[in-house]
Amino acid sequence: MKIRTALLLASMFAPLSAHAQAVPEAQRGAILSGIDKRAPELESTARAIWGWSEVGYQESKSSALLQARLKKAGFAVTPGVAGMPTAFVASFKQGNGPVIGILAEYDALPGLAQTNAPTKTAIAGKAAGHGCGHNLFGAASVEAAIAIREWMIANKVQGELRVYGSPAEEGGSGKVYLVRAGLFDDVSAVLHWHPGDANGVSTGKSMANISGKFRFHGVSAHAAASPDKGRSALDGVEVMDVAVNFMREHIPSSTRIHNIITAGGEAPNVVPDFAESYYYVRNVDPLIVRDVWGRVVKAAEGSAMATGTTVDYEITGGVYSMLASETLAKVMSSNLNAVGGETWTPEEIAWATELQKSLPTQKSLDSVRQTSSRERGPDGGGSTDVSDISWTVPTIGLSTATWVPGTPAHSWQAVAASGSSIGIKGATVAAKTIALTGADLFLSPEVLKEARAELDKARGPDFKYNALLGTRTPALDYRKPTPAWEGSTKSK
């Protein structure tokens, strides 16, 4: 769905001002040593989810594993929230105080099955892979939460800690349904992270988007004996593609439109009576996304008229642009710098050197040792459903070097590293940074108050959240092929 590395790891800007860490040094040391002690659990969880590689809304094993890990650690877990069977909320509450949320993702991407070898090696019979490293994301977030819980108990810290198990980030907009269900209404701050090829914190914007499937219906016929009796649904899809391509000249230049044909017929000598195209429209401005999406819909309707077919469509996802908290970024950046980057073994360096031969961009492997602080990166890049949370709760995230420098997200190289020890080391840096940041926020009511004021100012006094995907229920089958006979039953 997105390449969040572009968002979280942007070009260098002025350093963030130093943040006075609220947690005493001895307690910080205990938090970090606790994560180190549980490193085998983080690794086993991440590798198991990597091996399953379950796509959006089908992450039953991955979600169950994370829930079991949290239950064992003493969290109360509520599964199947907001109409999503693989979503959950895990909570630990001790008295009254701030509510700090940590996000966990665990969905894979279709078509990226790859071993953890440094050369392109597909896995026969497997259809998906963790090309965005969400196996690491979920595992590290859970370990960070467990570390915070232990610290809260040991030091009698008041408040509530929550882990939000959020499925289908890759195009399914799972977090949007969590927001819409009011599950963040009482939250003080939300923390997240994402795998990448460097270590850093940024407050740049991501792209808002709307995605959906256009389903054309025609009339089958023999393509040679009686083509005049047929009306090709595939023609409708192809005419729509041409219409949208001509439209590109007349939309804001920063807009992105991309699509694939997910169904186009079964045999050349049969006029196809069903065809489907899957579209994304992106821009940093949600209002532009709404407008351009409406024009794409008109292109579909006109194409159906031109080809004597009919068309219906289903919006499968829709997310806002990121509205990250600069106030929280200072806290997280300070903690990331304190944790530091990764140190690779000679074997890991050799593995990374071999993989790097396949990358179009060559970067220094030593960069994984470094951490970067930024006040703001350039806008754009990819999209994420974390953005909808960021418009309702003060939110901040980081990226860590889980991949070989120069690795693009959504690539086989990202899959390979996400299943390697390199990925685990980057995830451990993320777990430590989130744990320290969460602990600091429990002891920093003034920071939370400042972050809330910043959010209120940024979104304006008249802001009212309305999901870009409308009022539809979760698109639980968006990763499954659409049978021709079912297409017309989908809601718009």
From TrEMBL:
Residues 210-300 form the Peptidase M20 dimerisation domain. Residues 1-20 form the signal peptide. One of its GO terms (biological process) is folic acid catabolic process. The keyword Signal applies. GO terms for molecular function: dipeptidase activity; para-aminobenzoyl-glutamate hydrolase activity. It comes from the Bacteria. Residues 361-371 have a biased composition (Polar residues). One of its GO terms (cellular component) is cytoplasm. The keyword Signal applies. Keywords: Hydrolase, Signal. This is Aminobenzoyl-glutamate utilization protein B.
